[in-house]
Design a protein that fits this description.
Layout lengths: L2 H12 L5 H11 L5 H8 L3 H22 L1 H16 L4 H12 L1
Helix pairs in contact: 1-2, 1-4, 2-4, 3-4, 5-6
Amino acid sequence: MEKNLYIGALLEVYGQFLSEKQRELTYHYYNDDLSLSEIAENEGITRQGVRDIIKRAETTLFDMEKNCGYLSKFTELKMLKGEYESGKEAALGEILEIIDTL
């Protein structure tokens, strides 16, 4: 998964664990495709300040995924669902195993 899409997905899963400011700025950077300078101008803070907030948010998101793994499990479940729907019966067992680990 491309980094921007991956962080956007992490933001969807774990965004509520970030501060409101971290969530907002990270969302604008990755989902609205605003530059650091554009965000800084809109927020009335320095470009470096925006970068620092986003970097801290990224670190938190990566740590959450490393510790919880919900995004990777969700992605795997979606893949296995497709396999099961196309006739691979063994995928159901794998789906149930993942669900048991949640």
